[in-house]
Write a structure and sequence with these properties.
2 domains, 12 strands, 480 residues, alpha+beta
Length: 480
């Protein structure tokens, strides 16, 4: 009996056994969740048999005794059928096929037709494994796969796959075109930095550490986000009520078409070049308002000046409030009504555009209270911070125009994209492994996972089988 008939017979037998089990389970009043579990295991086994049947239907990829490539090469068919393993979501199967050519110049028509991956793991298994790995630790992702499929990919295997697959993320990003902003929508670009714990044996990539980086502990990832949002004019009273939780702003518009990325190996310039590209694609005619919303890090604002020179710079209000609270605690006890009143009064002035009055007031307090030491240093740092960022603190104009003034998206991206996955207890990363997860996780969080996998598998087919024609109707020129 032929292999395809045997495979089909085995599949039919498994299906018949499954029907018999269901009848017996009904009579024995089996709990439905136990029936579900048994069904899943048996269906996976049935899937394995059907996959074997499918492969038997495909044949051996025999296109004749010789294969003619596009570049004129003539490859002879192997004398023996060769076997390669393939680990599917149903388990491992063997794929038997003819190979044309030898050594480095080998081509396998059946591999091309099936779009087999370079390694033995099926693209579907890789996709599921990396989807879990982008959210959970590699070990936990392996346990989830084992729980569902009965297949436990080792941590090193998932790490290796993640590094390979993440190599296709940048090409996918370049091929994406974000939707153009419409109407009065505001385009917002924002950036912040978040540390990633690096293994102690990770070689340094530069002689001097950047601001905020610690030796053999963390390396800063530059996180970027771009989104569009409808303008939302507010009053000073609206903001004061919002920050004090006395009320909530109704009908607040939500960010749309948000895209995230984080660069750990590449410099911050890479992130800002991407931000500029995103803004240009969303605003090709230059008709939309563009806002760049960040904290007070000087390096980021220098990059904004270089890559987004025409964007309206806005200093994140929450970082401003952190400075005000520090100033309040110079004079008042933490959590006291006096500290709250101190912050509220100066926040109201800042929202009214009176930055100079606030700076002047702090200077007068240093003199009036004859501050020395740490207290004086705290107020001087606040004064310097406000003075250096004064041109980005015109909140009265921003509120009237309906621009966002809080970088919640960037803060959330740092936490959700970086910290929630890469800063768990005991985690230490090598640069390449951390960047791979950041790329994959950003793709997942951007909602582009399915599109990315279609792009990746298509690109891999072209890379692995580029010499072969993908049109099945005239796939190969062969000599019979």
């Amino acid at each position: 009996m032929q292999d395809n008939e045997l495979a089909l017979l085995e599949a039919r037998g498994k299906f018949a056994n499954l029907i018999g089990y269901l009848k017996e389970a009904a009579v024995n009043k089996e709990a439905i969740h136990k029936v579900e579990y048994h069904l899943l295991r048996e269906l996976l086994s049935l899937g394995w048999s059907l996959l074997v049947y499918f492969l038997s239907q495909k044949g051996l990829g025999d296109v004749g005794c010789a294969l003619f490539l596009r570049d004129g090469q003539i490859l002879l068919r192997s004398q023996e059928v060769q076997v390669r393993p393939y680990l599917s979501i149903f388990g491992e199967v063997e794929i038997r096929r003819y190979v044309y050519g030898e050594g480095a110049c080998q081509h396998v028509p059946l591999d091309c037709e099936l779009n087999l991956p370079e390694w033995k793991y099926s693209y579907l298994l890789e996709e599921w494994g990396l989807a879990f790995s982008s959210q959970e630790a590699f070990g936990e992702a392996g346990k989830i796969l084992d729980k569902i499929l009965g297949l436990n990919l080792a941590v090193r295997t998932l790490e290796r796959i993640s590094r390979k697959v993440s190599g296709g993320v940048e090409a996918f990003r370049q091929d994406q075109v974000p939707p153009k902003a419409e109407g009065e929508e505001v385009i917002v670009a924002t950036s912040d930095c978040k540390g990633v714990p690096i293994t102690k044996d990770q070689p340094s990539t530069k002689k001097r550490r950047g601001k905020g980086e610690k030796a053999n502990k963390k390396k800063m990832a530059c996180v970027g986000a771009v989104y569009t949002i409808a303008p939302f004019p507010r009053t000073v009273e609206d903001i004061l009520d919002d920050v004090s939780h006395k009320g909530s702003l109704k009908c607040r518009p939500r960010p749309q078409h948000k895209q995230l990325r984080a660069d750990l190996i590449q410099k911050k310039e890479t992130t800002f070049a991407w931000l500029a590209q995103q803004v240009a694609q969303r605003n090709p005619l230059g008709q939309q308002s563009v806002v760049c919303l960040m904290d007070g890090e000087k390096k980021l604002w220098n990059l904004k000046k270089r890559y987004l020179p025409d964007a309206i710079g806005i200093l994140d209000l929450w970082h401003v409030m952190e400075k005000l609270w520090k100033g309040a605690y110079v004079f008042h006890r933490e959590g006291s009504p006096q500290a709250q009143a101190f912050v509220t009064k100066r926040l109201e002035m800042l929202l009214e555009g009176k930055v100079g009055y606030v700076i002047g007031g702090f200077r007068q307090m240093i003199t009036k209270h004859q501050l020395r030491g740490k207290k004086k240093k705290t107020l001087q740092e606040i004064i310097t911070y406000f003075h250096n960022n004064r041109k980005h603190m015109r909140y009265d104009l921003y509120l009237a125009a309906g621009y966002p003034i809080g970088s919640g998206v960037a803060e959330g991206a740092c936490r959700h994209l970086v910290k929630d996955r890469l800063e768990r207890t005991g985690m230490r990363w090598r640069l390449e492994g951390a960047q791979a997860i950041l790329d994959l996780r950003a793709t997942y969080l951007n909602g582009d996972w399915d599109q990315f996998w279609e792009h990746y598998t298509t690109a891999e087919k072209k890379r692995l089988f580029g010499q072969l024609n993908f049109d099945n109707s005239m796939a190969y020129r062969a000599a019979g």
